Structure prediction request, 220 residues.
Amino acid sequence: MAVIGFRGAGKAEKKYLSIAFTKMDIGYHTISAVALGIALSACCGFRVFIPLLVASVVAYNHWFALPADMHWIGTGVSVTCFAIASAIEVGAYYFPFLDNILDTIAAPLAVAAGTILAHALIPFPDSEPVLRWLMAFVAGGATAGTIHIGTGIWRLFSTKATLGTGNPVLATGENAAAIAGAIASFFIPVIMSIIMLLVVGWFAYQEILRATTAGKSNLP
Prediction:
């Protein structure tokens, strides 16, 4: 596993996103860190707490460095809390109809988790906290939210088509995607980020297509 370092981008305060990225030291570690942040954040769309648990365990073992304001992720307390939350989340999704309710509750949590992980892992300029959180929301929160909405629609369709009997199969696939994706993100971050962005793009396309079709069907 490669150890990824996190560095501030500029020496002077930057006001614009384009200036900030221009001043960043674009190297292997930076590219890997950005890819890791995107890939791991996207995994929150499958399960909210599993990617947080994986990141917490890795940080707890000092396999990568976190920004000073995100050190809490790598504490023993965080590992325990994320482990318990992950177990509850995984188990709850095996109950048909309850899983549909959880999709609604977990939607904002997935966005929040993705934003937090992107903020912790992607080397944004430290001198711009507001800009950093905004970029983290775009890179992490939006990707996690798109995947979560997409899988939620799948589950709703499964509930209607199979009366919930097919939902556990979908839940198992989501669990596998969250676990395997989160772990693989630390070993092959660039490849995983590309895969996750393709998944996000596919879900976004399906959601736009569905909305367009629904709009046409409502025309007189």
Observations:
- The chain has eight helices and no strands.
